[in-house]
Write a structure and sequence with these properties.
- Helix 2 packs across helix 3 (140-151) and helix 6 (222-231) packs across helix 7.
- The protein is α/β, with parallel strands linked by helices.
- The chain has helices at 83-88, 114-124, 140-151, 189-199, 214-220, 222-231, 246-261, 281-287, 298-307, 326-333, 342-356, 362-376, 395-401, 419-427, and strands spanning 10-14, 20-21, 39-43, 77-80, 93-97, 100-101, 106-107, 132-136, 156-161, 169-170, 178-183, 205-207, 237-241, 270-276, 335-340, 386-390, 405-406, 411-413.
- 33% of the residues lie in helices and 17% in strands.
């Protein structure tokens, strides 16, 4: 932790009412409001103050709701594409990369942009916090939080589906301040969330908050800050694969701040977000012009999740309908929800590897596949200013260069667990 860091000055605002209020430390909702709404950080610094790369993600700390910095962070890197751009005939393609790619000056040990969330969220925590942070995840988020909390001795309980445990790899054994519980094989991300919600009813545990946590969104928004400060203006198009859509909401919010900054133009970039076919609840709702997600069968959704390569895109209850959520973001900014099959994403990953020289995660491959498709369909012009958010990469390379250690669950529960049993067993864990 840096001793020279002074807390970022900010207030919080309800997107629904515009009411401004103070952050009481871990505020996730607007006080006294009944209609569900995201809250947003309003920073004292209207212009982004950018520090040098040695600060890692905290180079953007003037727009992060934090009061300390933690060891080991990296900021996303943005570069003008040559290889992929040439293969697609694009003249203004910029790639924002989060992952492991030492030649590009980035070494995220978990190879995922989820580190942008975890380094921001954990830096929002009070130093004297005695309660245990609880994070539910389909994989990448858990890996990122585990790495950050292990390195910085922060107590953390993860809830991850048993079928996704292969995502919990690390280059060294973790500190025992990080513990893991799972929902049995056959469960998915929503089951992990349900399990974590039960745990958070215990007095000494508290929820990280997901999309409601301003630190999570503004941490993810650093991808947009990286791109815009590198390019010198706000992009026209933003391509990213989504599970919850929180990254796209974060990019939109960062976009609004960058307009207010005044140095990067007043453009709202179109959000070109994508899902992995056949799991596409956000696509279905958007195409129906529905603020609410359309009804679907939970068992059918679980089957679809088993099929998709990009398991991290499997959120059944995303922050889509909530005020300030993805529906509002896309209505305000414009854009579309796109689809890519496993086969299209695998092919896109190969093209990226051949043209840019690094492996990418299945989710990033879904985004790349939809960019390839958009170019073919002439949905974007060849000279359009495009940001492709590669949300994870370099994992295969990292695995070759490091011996991996896997985190094992302390407890495994049924998909529909007995709540008292969960509380009893988790309550006995030693911290």
């Amino acid at each position: 932790m840096s001793s020279s860091f002074s807390r970022t000055e900010y207030k919080l605002m309800s997107v629904e009412t515009g009411a401004i209020f103070n952050d009481k430390g871990w505020t996730l909702d607007a006080p006294g409001e009944s209609k569900p709404s995201l809250i947003r950080a309003i920073y004292n610094d209207k212009q982004l103050i950018q520090k040098d790369d040695s600060f890692g993600i905290y180079k953007f700390s003037s727009w992060l709701p934090i009061h300390k910095t933690l060891h080991g962070s990296n900021a996303p890197v943005t570069f003008k594409s040559k290889g992929l751009a040439a293969s697609l005939g694009l003249s203004n393609l910029y790639i924002t990369f989060s992952g492991y790619w030492p030649e590009r000056g980035i070494e995220m040990k978990t190879c995922s942009f989820k580190e942008t969330e975890s380094y921001s969220v954990c830096a929002r925590m009070d130093n004297n916090e005695k309660k245990i942070l609880v994070v539910a995840s389909a994989g990448n988020t858990a890996r990122a939080f585990a790495q950050v909390c292990s390195n910085n001795k922060i107590n953390l309980l993860l809830s991850v589906p048993e079928d996704n445990l292969n995502a919990l790899w690390f280059d060294a054994p973790l500190n025992d301040c990080v513990k893991l519980i799972s929902s049995k094989s056959g469960g998915d991300y929503f089951d992990a969330i349900h399990l974590s919600n039960i745990v958070c009813e215990l007095d000494n545990y508290f929820a990280e908050g997901g999309a409601k946590n301003v630190a999570r969104r503004d941490g993810m928004g650093t991808t947009m800050l990286s791109a815009t400060t590198k390019i010198g203006e706000i992009p026209e198009y933003y391509f990213q694969a989504i599970g919850s859509g929180t990254g796209a909401i974060a990019a939109w919010e960062a976009n609004l701040r960058l307009i207010e900054d005044g140095r990067f133009g007043n453009r709202k970039m179109k959000l070109m977000v994508s899902q992995n076919y056949p799991f596409h609840p956000i696509y279905d709702a958007w195409k129906a012009d529905s603020r609410s997600l359309l009804p679907f069968d939970d068992m059918e959704a679980r089957k679809q999740v088993e099929i998709i390569d990009a398991k991290v895109l499997s959120n059944r209850k995303p922050p889509y309908s909530i005020t300030g959520g993805l529906f509002d973001a896309m209505k305000d900014a414009g854009g579309d929800v796109l689809l890519a099959t496993n086969e299209e994403a695998r092919e896109a990953a190969q093209i990226f590897l051949q043209t840019e020289g690094i492996d990418i995660h299945p989710a990033a491959a879904v985004a790349t596949a939809t960019l390839i498709d958009a170019v073919k369909n002439k949905d974007v012009e060849t000279d359009s200013l495009i940001m492709l958010n590669i949300t994870g990469g370099g994992e295969k390379r990292f695995e070759k260069e490091h011996k991996l250690h896997y985190l094992k669950p302390q407890l495994v529960f049924d998909v529909n667990p007995d709540e008292d049993e969960v509380k009893e067993h988790v309550g006995k864990l030693k911290w």
